[in-house]
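Following the same procedure, the fold was encoded as tokens, giving this record:
***
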Amino acid sequence: MRKALRKRHAWFRGQPGSRAVWIATLALLALASEAARGQTNTNSVRLLLHDRLGHTVHASTNEVNPVLLPPPSTGLSNQIPTAPKGTPQSEEVHRRIVESKTGREWLPQTPPVLMPYLANLDEYGNTVIQPGAVFPVDPLSKLPQAGKYAASEAGLRYTLYQSLAMVSMTEVNSGASALQYYTSTFLGKWAVAETPDTGRASWISTEANIQLGLSPASRVQTPVGNLGTVVNPQATVFGPNGIWLSELAWQQSLMDGKLVFLAGQVDQSNYIDANTYANNSQGQFLNGAFVNS
């Protein structure tokens, strides 16, 4: 064995050209491996997600069920996560948006390029997937995710909240002590046009609400009215019985996304009350004192 190894070592030392080829081959393999690793870690081949604190999480496509991945018409390069309200846009998401721009475009698939302090005020992304799910796959996620991808291809990004509210009260001042409602809120941002070279973009923002009483008393009464309190204890119930529009506005960004003008009917709480932990009664606190601070 030792004799054979000595002969092989002597042969290698006696072939300078072979030694150079061997070293060059190792160097090329190392560079190829490093390039492949770098390509795997780029934004264009990984899903970008947000945890509940707004931190960006990178997810490999192998970690996500194929039915939840963007279709070829959308592609990973146009996949934008839904950002928690009140958090600045992360560098990774901003870079992906910038890289997706190719010039003047009507109904762009990705959000406008805005400064981080403005980008997430009314941005809803096209992804409902969240990291750390208890059930990696469930039968209810496929349809909403497919709908968001399809809508984003036409420039529309949105969030839809729905809830059933059943309120049982004691010592009411008037009315029924038990009320039931179906409530829903649609928040949308429809990109109209963008010209990255001039730093200008236009879009329409909207908020639509539904509140339906599920009993005769619930159609004309509310928890805050029956209790006679100053603060609404059930903030999901805050409007009339029916459907109404809280926001419909034209927005225009200028100065490379440093400034945004709004014109139309505006729900100020969408922009002023930007608390990450307490801004949505259909997913966080119920009391109106927390939701609208």
Residues 1-16, 30-42 have pLDDT under 50 and may be disordered. The chain has two domains: 2-39, 43-291. Residues 52 and 84 are 7 Å apart (CA to CA). The first strand starts at residue 47 and ends at 50.
